[in-house]
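seq as requested:
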Amino acid sequence: MQNRLYVGNLPFDINAQAIEQAFAAHGSVTDVHVVMDRETNRPRGFAFVTMGTDSEAQEAISQMDGVMLGGRALRVNQAEAKPARTGGSGGGPNRGGSGGGFGGGDRRPRY
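struct tokens:
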């Protein structure tokens, strides 16, 4: 997981290919995941890039952090591990479970 990078402050019109091309100069890129807004299906301005090795990831961080891309200065650092989900029953709003007061998982839209 050391070779997964967070890339922030991306231009909103960028695509995965452009990100891959920018990072490929610093090593092999094995995956690019542009995070999309669920409602508008537009990029949210950040992505995750997975480099081939840890050393390539460190090289990409040192060379790409602060670089201008599409008129914006990129923020590049090591991605944090996703926190493990607990299997408890304390769901938040619209998550079902017994903790949110939503009756155990009724997923119908509320108008």
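Residues 4-78 form a domain with the Alpha-Beta Plaits fold (CATH 3.30.70.330).
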